[in-house]
Structures are given as C-alpha cells and as structure tokens.
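We were asked to recover a plausible sequence for a given structure. The inputs and outputs are reproduced exactly as logged, with field labels preserved.

PROBLEM: sequence recovery
POSITIONS: 432
GIVEN STRUCTURE:
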C-alpha cells in the first residue's frame, strides 16, 4: 500500500511517481562519471533535487545549502566540518578573495596533524594508544581552493559535493566559486551545483576556463509524454484512473512537473484517495476543476505577496530635477500583469522590455536603457533582499532575455484575474 503524499506532490524526498528521462537522467549519470564539475539547472520545482536523490546515495555526497549570506569560505568550512576535520580559526577580518572581492571574518585555520599525516580526527584516537606520535599544526587559507584541496586529499575525501540553491549566492561569490571549480576539477574533486536559471553556460560566463570542464544538465523542458508517464506510474501505485482529465491537467500545468504533481495529489485527495485503493477510483472533471482552483488560490497568496514585496521600495525625489525616481520594480510588475501571456512564456528581451515599460511609464522620456540594464542585472539580488524565495524571474545577461523561473507562476498568471491584482498593487510614486 502506498500513501498518496508519497506518490504525488512536491517533497524534499524522492517521490514514487518519479520517472527517468533518457536525455536528462542518462546525461546526469554520465556527467557524474566524466570527471567534470556538474551543473544542474532549470526553473524551480522541475526536478533538480529529485535527480540527486534518484542517482546518488546519501553516503556518496555531502551537501551544503547556500544562502544570500554564504561565502565561499563558509562552503569550504561546512565541507570540512562534515568530513570530521577540526581546526582552530585565526582572527582575521576584511580579507581579500583569491579572485577579487572581500570577505569578513576568519578564513585562516590551523589543522592538527600527526607524524603520519593523518587528519586530526583520526590522530586523536592514535594519541591515546601511542606516546610516540608527534602532533603539529599546519595553517591553511580556507579562501584558497588549492589549500582546501590539500585538506580534502589529506583526509582521503572521495565524495561529491552538492551545492543547493547556488542562485542565492551573491554575484561576487558565484564568480569566486566559478574560478575555484577550475582548481577543484584539477584535483579531481567534483561539485554538483544546483541552480534556478534557464540559460546554459551561467558559470562559464564568470570563468571561460570552465569551458569543457563542466557538464551541464538542464532538467527542462518536460515533454507531454513524460507527464503522462508520471501520471501513469502514480495510477498504478494508487489504483486510480486519470484518463478523463489527464490531457487537460497537463495542458493547464504549463510544462511544470511540480504543478502536475501537486494537482494530481489534490485530485486524488478530493476523490477520497489518501492511499492505494482496493478498487479503481476514476478522477472526474469536477475533481480537476476543484483542484486547480484550490492550487491557484494557494499559489496566489504567495505570488501576490511576492509582487507586493517586489514593488515595496523607497522612492526618492531628486534634489536637482525635483522628480521622483523611476520606480522600475513597480512598472516591471505592472508589465508582468498586463503583458500578453504568450510573450511572457516566450521570454522578453531587454529591448522589448525597454519599449514596453516606456509605453506605461509616467515619465517615458526618462526611461533609459542603461538604467533598465542596471535594474535587470540586480534582479535576483533585489528579490532575495525582499525575501522572495525562490526568485520568480531571472535575467539572462548573455542572451539579454528575461524569463520566469518559478514554474508555478505561469499557472497562477493564467488562472488569476491579472487586471484586478494589478489594480491592487500600490504605486510608490503616487504615495509620495
């Protein structure tokens, strides 16, 4: 017997309706054997974490959760602590990165070694059995990938290092890690980086030397047959029948496996299926309609709050011109709520955004490409600073295209009253 919440839905553990896709799962398995650093990317809730859970056992990797406050040194310290390395930190502040930028706090550490060069965690046991061992402390700079690699080697480290939520890291930290990954690859230490973005070569843009040294695995797009396989697997496990509604269910989910999973779960629960049923239960149109309405409401609470947080800015009046600032966050959200849905799905170029914002702006002649570019380049950090997690939109600097990266947002925008929501979003310029 299987529980519905274990078969369908979005969870932190591997869901039982998981299916392998030849172009994604095979590429990931090959990437793990290639010796290259591995980059797994795509929109939120599209299967990045599930890919790890499916193909790596817990004893094959250690994981570090990234946050907006995380530095590269924080990552390396976490890795070393997880493998049992103990060290004494020295007090150092405002230190430089190897590749530019600055960090605060301690980054140098003294690690205890014994005469046979075993790590201090091992050495402590030896000291109780033999008085002939000699203990010494070696100083390492944990801001340097070379030093960290030496420590990993001294501890016979042979696991993958998984970096979750890489997109939360500040831009300069991502750049530093892009350089460090080149060094770790030379020492045969493999990082598996998970990030929410939709364009290829994100890290290569930071460091061209990574070209041919990383293997990228995109978890998108999901094809319609893949969705049907997921639903079919869940049908067998729970003894349910989605045949009457599965076409519409997939069509209304806008290529998001996370949305498909959640709606399938809700449909089953609304039909009274909380675990494998003794008889086949048919999922009806009414179940689907109610599930979609409920999910749209759930997504709506989060997305509307995100929109309000996004536009919550302090508008300053220029001392020279006497005019308020241009309030790009507000006009961006207003555009998102009024733009043709097909254009949003396709992605909007910087040039298109410039003209579209000018067409609705209260000071169209003052909307300049350079100012818009600065706003777009800081888009992810703006969302993180407003507590918007995960970010719902991302700007590809290479292709100069803005894309939605929260897969549930398409579903919400299609099923909500965008005009009503746009009218409720406060205009910060009018509040001056």
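RECOVERED SEQUENCE:
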């Amino acid at each position: 017997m299987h529980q519905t919440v274990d078969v369908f839905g979005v969870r932190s553990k591997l869901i039982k309706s998981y299916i392998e896709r030849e172009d994604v799962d095979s590429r990931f398995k090959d990437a793990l054997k290639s010796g290259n650093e591995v980059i797994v990317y795509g929109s939120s809730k599209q299967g990045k974490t599930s890919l790890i859970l499916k193909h790596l056992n817990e004893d094959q990797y250690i994981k570090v959760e990234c946050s907006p406050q995380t530095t590269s040194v924080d990552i390396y310290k976490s890795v070393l602590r997880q493998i049992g390395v103990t060290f004494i930190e020295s007090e150092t502040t405002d230190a430089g990165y190897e590749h530019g930028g600055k960090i605060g706090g301690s980054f140098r550490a003294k690690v205890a070694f014994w005469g046979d060069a075993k790590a201090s965690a091992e050495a402590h046991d030896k000291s109780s059995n033999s008085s002939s061992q000699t203990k010494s402390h070696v100083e390492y700079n944990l801001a340097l990938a070379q030093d960290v690699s030496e420590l990993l080697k001294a501890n016979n480290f042979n696991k993958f290092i998984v970096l979750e939520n890489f997109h939360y890291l500040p831009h300069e930290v991502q750049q530093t890690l892009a350089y460090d990954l080149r060094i770790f690859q030379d020492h045969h230490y493999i990082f598996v980086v998970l990030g929410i973005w939709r364009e290829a070569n994100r890290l290569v843009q930071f460091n061209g030397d990574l070209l041919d040294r990383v293997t990228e695995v995109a978890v998108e797009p999901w094809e319609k047959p893949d969705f049907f396989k997921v639903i079919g697997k869940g049908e067998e496990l729970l003894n349910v029948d989605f045949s009457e509604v599965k076409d519409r269910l997939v069509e209304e989910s806008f290529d998001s496996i996370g949305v498909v999973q959640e709606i399938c779960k809700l449909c089953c629960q609304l039909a009274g299926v909380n675990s494998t049923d003794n008889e086949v239960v048919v999922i009806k149109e009414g179940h689907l309609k109610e599930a979609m309405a409920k999910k749209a409401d759930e997504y709506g609470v989060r997305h509307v709050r995100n929109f309000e947080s996004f536009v919550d800015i302090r508008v300053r009046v220029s001392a020279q011109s006497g005019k308020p600032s241009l309030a790009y966050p507000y006009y961006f959200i207003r555009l998102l709520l009024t733009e043709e849905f097909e254009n949003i799905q396709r992605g909007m170029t910087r040039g298109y955004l410039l003209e579209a914002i000018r067409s609705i702006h209260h000071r169209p002649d003052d909307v300049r490409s350079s100012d818009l570019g600065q706003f777009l380049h800081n888009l992810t950090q703006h969302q993180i600073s407003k507590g918007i997690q995960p970010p719902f939109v991302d700007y590809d600097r290479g292709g100069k295209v803005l894309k939605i990266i929260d897969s549930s947002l398409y579903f919400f925008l299609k099923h909500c009253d965008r005009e009503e929501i746009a009218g409720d979003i406060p205009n910060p310029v009018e509040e001056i």
